[in-house]
C-alpha cells in the first residue's frame, strides 16, 4: 500500500502540482478522516470503488467521488453506467486499487480505473483525500485534482 502512496506522490510531483501530505493516526471512516485532517466533511473527498455488472459476468470496477458529507446515489450511478452497481468487496477493492477500503485515493487512472465524480466537489477551493494509506492524506486545490483526474462529471451524490 505504501507503493500506491509513492506512485501518487510521484505522479503529483511530475505534474508540478502544489499539494500537502498530512500524516495522522489510522482512520477508517469519513468522519475520522475529516477530524484527523482538521477539515469539515464537505471538503473531504470519498473515493469509493464500485463493481458495475452488465451482460458479462466480470464486473467493471469504477471509482466514484463525492464530498464526504454526502453519499453515492447508487440508482443514479447505475443509470449513468447502464449497469447494476454495488460496492466492491474489500477483496475486490484490494485487487482493483491495491489499497484497502477507506484508503483509496481518487486518481483512478493510476489503477487503470474509470473515475466518476460529482461536481459538488468543486464547491470547495481545496479538498483532502486518502492517499493510498489509512495514515496519510493529501490536500490540494479541487480544480487541480479534477484537471489531473479528468473524471466523468455526473450528478451522483445524495445527502
Can you describe this structure?
With 159 residues, the chain is an alpha+beta fold. The chain has one domain (2-158): YbaK protein (Alpha-Beta Complex), CATH 3.90.960.10. Helices cover 28% and strands 31% of the residues. The chain is built from five helices and ten strands. The chain has helices at 2-14, 30-37, 74-81, 90-97, 142-149; strands at 19-23, 45-53, 60-67, 71-72, 84-87, 114-117, 126-133, 136-141, 152-153, 157-158. The strands form three sheets. A five-stranded mixed beta sheet has the order 5-2-3-6-9. A three-stranded antiparallel beta sheet has the order 1-8-7. It has a two-stranded antiparallel ribbon with strand order 4-10. The protein starts with a helix and ends with a strand. The mean pLDDT is 95.
Low-confidence stretches: none
Helix content class: 25-40%
Q: Describe the oligomeric state of these chains in a short phrase.
A: single chain
Enumerate how many helices there are, as a single number: 5
- Overall average pLDDT: 95
Order of helices and strands: HEHEEEHEHEEEHEE
CATH topology: YbaK protein
Q: Beta fraction of the residues?
A: 25-35%
Radius of gyration: 14 Å
The CATH superfamily is identified as YbaK/aminoacyl-tRNA synthetase-associated domain
CA-based shape: globular
The name of the CATH architecture is Alpha-Beta Complex
As for the number of domains, it is 1
In CATH, what is the class? Alpha Beta
Amino acid at each position: 500500500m505504501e507503493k500506491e502512496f509513492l506512485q501518487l506522490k510521484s505522479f503529483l510531483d511530475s505534474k508540478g502540482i502544489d499539494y500537502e501530505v498530512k500524516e495522522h493516526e489510522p482512520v477508517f471512516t469519513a468522519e475520522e478522516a475529516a477530524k484527523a485532517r482538521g477539515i469539515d466533511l464537505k471538503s473531504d473527498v470519498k473515493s469509493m470503488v464500485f463493481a458495475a455488472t452488465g451482460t458479462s459476468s466480470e464486473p467493471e470496477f469504477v471509482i466514484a467521488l463525492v464530498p464526504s458529507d454526502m453519499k453515492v446515489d447508487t440508482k443514479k450511478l447505475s443509470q449513468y453506467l447502464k449497469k447494476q452497481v454495488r460496492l466492491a468487496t474489500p477483496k475486490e477493492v484490494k485487487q482493483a486499487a491495491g489499497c484497502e477500503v477507506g484508503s483509496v485515493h481518487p486518481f483512478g487512472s493510476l489503477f487503470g480505473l474509470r473515475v466518476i465524480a460529482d461536481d459538488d466537489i468543486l464547491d470547495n477551493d481545496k479538498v483532502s483525500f486518502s492517499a493510498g494509506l489509512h495514515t496519510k492524506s493529501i490536500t490540494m486545490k479541487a480544480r487541480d485534482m479534477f484537471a489531473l483526474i479528468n473524471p466523468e462529471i455526473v450528478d451522483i451524490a445524495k445527502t
